[in-house]
Specification:
Blueprint: H1 27-33, H2 43-67, H3 73-96, H4 103-116, H5 121-133, H6 149-152, H7 157-164, H8 173-179, H9 201-225, H10 227-251, E1 262-263, H11 270-274, H12 285-288, H13 295-300, H14 309-320, H15 336-347, E2 357-358, H16 364-375
Antiparallel strand pairs: 1-2
Helix pairs in contact: 1-14, 2-3, 3-4, 3-5, 3-10, 4-9, 9-10
């Protein structure tokens, strides 16, 4: 019989580290280590990023219309889809209130940015707030939350393959907006969804109306210029944006070389949940998508503006110690993350129905199917 090793401050006598152990510091200790200037929100600086990104979006669209060449279209699709993702991150900052201290400015800018890429601002903002408040909690987390075994076992094999085979999970975001994740009910567009409180229904209605207006505009322009041209100009970049969103959000909570814990009940705390998130290095895209890969400090303190996250993380690392996992350095393009994604999707399928500290388990039958498909 194997003796249970005792961990103190995450370490045992052999020097092994257990990421699920209670940390030897408080969230107040991390907060105190972060310089005061990192908490300052400068609306002019935030707006400068909006002007930068929107200008690039329009410049790329103008170049695509002017060139209208199959040599340029693939470059345009990737570049514009990446810029849509950058625009989303700025709208995401509005939703957290890290864009500015002015709630009206946050709402106006957030609606414009998110509606332009077919995201319902308040609907998504509220569910994302739920995610942050419950990160790492199997029962209450909102996005990319692991399925308990009993729910997983109810999925038919085709659904499992779609959910865990690249590239299908990278197109999950629109489905999530309409139907949420398996085991959860509700829609980000329905003000009466259980995602929202009665006091939030008018906000959700407003965002759904803005989303619908954008959809009507796109339909009208598509009718005017032709659906195939509109698909090239907007549709494919939208799909690239969705891939970016699903890739980044998944890898912030999955795919680390060491399996990370998920919590239930009394074992969960805001700090322990936040420490299960993972920073990622995206190479030249770090600046383009506003350092969203600097994710641990963002999860613990979402009110910090994106342009202070790198500095805040550097200051917090000595406090967090081994509970912070240094991201693997990327080349110009983060190709190394493809392996993390594929490996995680092949192995991280469900968690136990019981237990207050759980780790992902593997469906061996699905793993074998995915392995066969990989080599056929």
């Amino acid at each position: 019989m194997e003796l249970k090793r005792e961990y103190v401050n995450g370490m045992n006598e052999q020097g092994d580290f257990d990421p699920s152990s209670p940390p030897p510091f408080r969230i107040a200790d991390i907060r105190a280590a972060i310089p005061k200037q990192c908490w300052i929100k400068n609306p002019w600086r935030s707006m400068s990023y909006v002007f930068r990104d929107v200008s690039v979006v329009f410049a790329l669209a103008a170049a695509a219309v002017y060139c209208n060449s199959w040599l340029f279209w693939p470059i345009y699709w990737f570049a514009q889809g990446t810029m849509f993702w950058a625009v989303f991150v700025l709208g995401h900052d509005c939703g957290h209130g890290s864009f500015s201290d002015n709630a009206i400015l946050n709402s106006v800018v957030g609606h414009i940015l998110h509606s332009s890429i077919l995201v319902p601002y308040h609907g998504w903002r509220i569910s994302h707030r739920t995610h942050h408040q419950n990160h790492g909690n199997v029962e209450k987390d909102e996005s990319w939350v692991p399925m308990p075994e009993n729910i997983y076992k109810k999925l038919d094999i085709s659904t499992r393959l779609l959910r865990f085979t690249v590239p299908f999970p990278l197109f999950a975001f629109p489905v999530y907006l309409w139907h949420r994740s398996p085991g959860k009910e509700g829609s980000h567009f329905n003000p009466y969804s259980n995602l929202f409180s009665p006091q939030e229904r008018k906000l959700v209605m407003m965002s759904t109306a803005c989303w619908s207006t954008m959809a009507i505009i796109l339909a009208y322009v598509s009718f005017t210029v032709g659906p195939s041209h509109m698909f090239k100009l907007y549709g494919i970049p939208y799909l690239i944006f969705v891939i970016w969103l699903d890739l980044v959000t998944y890898l912030h909570h999955h795919g680390h070389e060491q399996k990370l814990p998920w919590y239930r009940g009394k074992e969960w705390s805001y700090l322990r949940g936040g420490l299960t998130t993972v920073d990622r290095d995206y190479g030249l895209f770090n600046n383009i998508h506003h350092d969203i890969g600097t994710h641990v400090i963002h999860h613990l303190f979402p009110q910090i503006p994106h342009y202070h996250l790198v500095e805040a993380t550097k200051a917090a690392k000595p406090v967090i110690g081994k509970f912070y996992r240094e991201p693997k350095k990327s080349g110009a393009v983060p190709f190394h993350l493809i392996k993390n994604l594929i490996t995680s999707l092949a192995q991280d399928h469900y968690v136990s129905n019981s237990g207050d500290i759980v780790f992902y388990q593997t469906d061996l039958n699905l793993f074998q199917l995915l392995s066969l498909a990989k080599y056929e």
